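Final report, closing paragraph on structural work. Over the funding period we assembled a curated collection of sequence-structure pairs, and we close with a single example.
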Amino acid sequence: MRRPASHKLWCVCLVGTHMPAVVQDANAADSHPGRVIRIVAPTAPGGGSTVSARLIAEEMARRAGRQIAMVDNRPGAGTRIGSEIVAKAAPDGYTLLMTPSTIATNPTGFKNMPYDGLRDFAPITLVLSVPSLFVVHPSLPAKSLKAFIALAKSRPGEILYGSAGHATNPHLTIELLASMAGIRMTHVAYQGGAPSIVALMSGEVALTASSSMSILIPHLRARRLNALGITSARRNVALPEVPTIAEGGLPGYESMQWAGLVAPAGTPRPIIEKLHKEVVVILRTPHVMSAMAKLGTDVATSANPEEFAAFIKAETVKWAAVAKAAGIEPK
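Its predicted structure, as stored:
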């Protein structure tokens, strides 16, 4: 007796419903990407996060012979707008976030976070790392870190320093130095790193910290600004004459700005692993590394997604402790 066609369809649907999740995830990874991946950059165009995202998207297209990914800039609210978009996106591997280190620092500065940086994202890999420079106005009598610390101790609370904004990496980077040096200064928050540099050059503030090497180096060469030190563990090849903060008198000091790629939490593990492998290969290609170096940033990748997850957690804990010691209250 011939069975109705509807019975055959019913059987197929039943089998599909009970297909193990591992098999479904593996199948999803095999076919990924089946459409264009959207990489959200939660910063304005031109920054390290945007440039690195574009380099990855371009190299993906070159390797595949077709467009694989596109970059979508969604700046605002200290990167929270773009980050929230990805945190609430479908966990299918087609919406990613090129997050700056604000994923770890924003919880220290804002009460009503629309997402949890540790819970709502699936880390893929670290992408870049860049140190900051401590720079001062040339009118300041202190020409070295030790001299600056001595000056600040003699004038507690009087020295004004600028940052890119409340609870940003530059803000916390300076407060880490203040805590380790036992000094107290007064913070002036600006709407971004560039305005803080302009304020420094005009003499509005005496000190700032910035990772914008391409902007700062010409001013240092022209002696319009003086560098007290660099925040990395080693000296920078572009500024070999500038000592590290550790060398300058604060052993153990280190603070880096960074960016990395994450997906919404719940994205299938095989897709995360596939993206990790692909992006790491791309970042290690000579022309991508060269392009990043020209921006003053270093390519920095994670051995696996778990390593990047542990890194984000460690950074979150570190900067929460710095904020607490500095009395920085969430707004």
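The CA atoms of residues 125 and 302 lie 5 Å apart. The chain is about 45% helix and 20% strand. We thank the funder for supporting this effort.
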